[in-house]
Amino acid sequence: MAEGAGYKVPMRRRREGRTDYRRRLRLLRGGRPRAVVRKSLNNLSVQFADYDARGDRIRISAVSVELSEYGWTGPAGNVPAAYLTGFLAGKRAAAQGIKAAVLDLGRVPPTKGSRVFAAVKGLVDAGVAVPHAEEVLPEPARISGQHIKPEVVQMFEQVKAKLEAL
């Protein structure tokens, strides 16, 4: 460990590896709301956050567990559930007047075709402009759940129809 009078201890969240402050500052300088996508092993959450000096202010939130209210009985941590969660958050954001946002993945490595980019596809399909490259989005067959089983595709279509009606 470094010692001496000139050594400065890094901030706690930086030491824990939870926040990249340089990336966060670049995102905040844009002035647009941030579409914050966070994943765990079993869930995915999408939030729209605005900067506030006392701490970020969450305007809209959607969690993949909420999909059960719309008829989703499958796992909440797969690609179709991530897309539907992003779609739900996008519909809520559009209802609140949010038309554009910048993507905030945090410390998640940006992997092509991953769940976080399925959520981005849901946001874009719901009408929120999020800058992204088309090649990072999952294929439509994976988004609809064809890689899982046919029952998931039917359930996906039913839930998406309910969400479009919002």
Structural overview:
This protein is an alpha+beta fold and 166 residues long. It has one domain (14-164): Nucleotidyltransferase, domain 5. It is built from six helices and four strands. The chain has a four-stranded mixed β-sheet, sandwiched between helices. Helix 3 packs parallel to helix 4 (115-125) and helix 3 runs parallel beside helix 6 (150-164). It is globular, with a radius of gyration of 18 Å. The mean pLDDT is 93.
CATH topology: Nucleotidyltransferase, domain 5
What would you call the shape?
globular
Helix content: 25-40%
Rg, please? 18 Å
SSE sequence, one letter per element: HHEEEHEHHH
Task: Give the N-terminus to C-terminus distance in angstroms.
Answer: 55 Å
Indicate the CATH class.
Answer: Alpha Beta
**Which structural category fits the helices and strands?**
alpha+beta
Strand content: 5-15%
- Overall pLDDT confidence: 93
Number of helices: 6
Sketch the major β-sheet: 4 strands, mixed
Gross CATH architecture: 2-Layer Sandwich
List unreliable stretches of 5+ residues.
none
Number of structural units classed as domains: 1
Quick tags:
166 residues; alpha+beta; four-stranded mixed β-sheet; 6 helices; 14% strand; globular
Brief summary:
The protein has 166 residues and is an alpha+beta fold. It has six helices and four strands; from the N terminus they run ααβββαβααα.
Element layout with pairings:
Elements: H1 12-15, H2 21-29, E1 34-39, E2 44-50, E3 57-63, H3 79-95, E4 102-104, H4 115-125, H5 140-144, H6 150-164
Parallel strand pairs: 1-4
Antiparallel strand pairs: 1-2, 2-3
